[in-house]
Amino acid sequence: MERPSVEQMTKEAFYDDAKVYWKEIPATVDGMLGGFGHISGADINGSLEFLKPFLTCSWPDRVQSERALDCGAGIGRITKHLLLPLFQHVDMVEQTQKFLDSAKSYIGAESERVERLICRGLQDYSPQPEHYDVIWVQWVLGHLTDDHLIHFLRRCKAGLTENGIICIKENIARSGVVFDDQDSSVTRSVTELRKLFKAAGMKIIKEDTQKNFPIGLFTVKMFALR
Questions:
Q1: CA distance 29 to 33
Q2: Mean pLDDT score of the chain
Q3: How far apart are CA 116 and CA 69, in angstroms?
Q4: d(C-alpha 223, C-alpha 133), whole Å
């Protein structure tokens, strides 16, 4: 569809419609990935390749590995396969309670290191100040209006420890903004995202493109912000 109108992205239905959509989605990996559960392995491998260098001594201002936050966490796919192998503790924030209810059984024994399961939309969520080494935000910013996205990133910045980073992983539109009325979300171009990052006072310190995804899907890019 064409770029959404201001009314589409600011009216309460933009959020309400998304809540209704996700309540009907099964609490499975396939559900989290819109029927593309088979890409999960490639997705995690791409994220590991992007994130791990920040945690090594070879990276200037090395990021610590004490605590991470998974935003839009769903059932904990990213928590289980990406964050728990790298961090001592992980918190999850997700607006659909049934997904959080499934997280412990999905993650398994390592779920003991998931300290907080927070049921809240990101437009209303504030991370604990100076608390997280990495805040991972994947395939969820499309559910925020521009203003809410900017303010969310500012709150995340305040939630970082010294040398902490925010990692964004999102589908990328070829240009402008594409509205999806099925799940009430938007897909932004790189230009649009960079404008919002700048408005939030964030600097891109690393950027990469996800590899090994099937032809026909949106391009997926990763950004590390500070």
A1: 6
A2: 94
A3: 9
A4: 15
